[in-house]
Amino acid sequence: MAEAISSDYLEPYIVPPRASPHKQTFIILHGRGSSGDKFGTVLLGTPVSTREQTDSPISDETLACLFPHARFVFPSAARRRATIYKRSYTHQWFDNWALDPPATDREELQNAGLRETTIYLHELIRREIRLVPGNNSKNVVLGGLSQGCAAALIALLLWDGEPLGAAFGMCGWLPHAYRMCQQLESERDEGPGASDGDDPFDPFEREPGDGEEMEDEDSTSPKDKAIRWLREEIGLPSNHVFPHTDVCQDIPLFLGHGTEDDRVPIDLGRLSFRCLRDMGIRIQWREYEGLGHWYSPIMLRDIIDSTPLLN
User: Which H helix or E strand runs over 167?
Assistant: First the structure.
């Protein structure tokens, strides 16, 4: 019997391993308006390009064929009102406004859903870690498409457990990337402890008495400050353990994006890549000429090839 987690989310669509023993688990998130079963069925039916010929697949091998010992978990987002769709209900990981780069308009719409989704995904990841051999987090991979990619990246940055085996995102973006990039650039320009004599307002600075022990600002890296700001911006509750931010640096990440994406502009993907790279994430980025808002057999092959665990 499945272990219950949040009641606001349906049980994930699960495809068990084709062969024993169970060795790995993939947790993969759909985009807005879809669901775990719809997305998972199509993804697992998509052939993966071979290494010998990348222009088009020359075999019927799919992710399920290539990883017969893997369990595939496709969670479904909760039904929420989408402001951009005149507040109609749809399955979405969080609410958001138009994604015109740098996607800073009405950013506050994202926060409640990102908070709830991050807590849910962390619960789901912990559950799946307990099911893999040896309870080894390195045998769990997290990924997503579009808004599912965005939700997975936030969950990854705020993950408070042992490092996962890998993560990937397809045609997605990092929410709040622009403001986190500003923080990183400001810290890099000023240097540790730099001051011009003024005391400017710092939106990333914490106030005493927020329920956490304050640290020496000079000993806090720009990456740590940016991730702490993100945690507070989305309002993660104080009883949710603040992550050791080096954890996310130990998780290899692949991001792929189509150059013809008309839903999530590729410039937003590029901004996300730069922000994550500057935070010290082990990230690979690839653009796919002529590809729209979807994945491709070549992208699936690149996801596999980018990670030693999947090779």
Answer: strand 166-170
Instruction: Judge whether 28 and 148 are in contact, CB under 8 Å.
Output: yes
3-state secondary structure (DSSP) of residue 278: helix
Q: Name the DSSP letter for residue 208.
A: T
Cis peptide leading into residue 21 (ω within 30°): yes
Q: How far is CA 165 from CA 22, 131, 162, 190, in A?
A: 15, 15, 10, 35
Residue with tokens 């998972």: 40
Alpha-carbon torsion 73, 141, 146, 231, what sign? positive
User: Do residues 259 and 294 make contact, with C-beta atoms less than 8 angstroms apart?
Assistant: no
**Count of CB atoms situated within 10 Å of the CB of 89:** 10
Neighbours of 197 (CB within 10 A): 4
CB atoms within 10 A of CB 213: 7
| pTM for this predicted structure | 0.86
d(CA 45, CA 39): 10
Query: What's the pLDDT tens digit per position in 151-210?
Result: 999 999 999 899 999 999 999 999 999 999 888 887 666 555 444 444 444 544 545 444
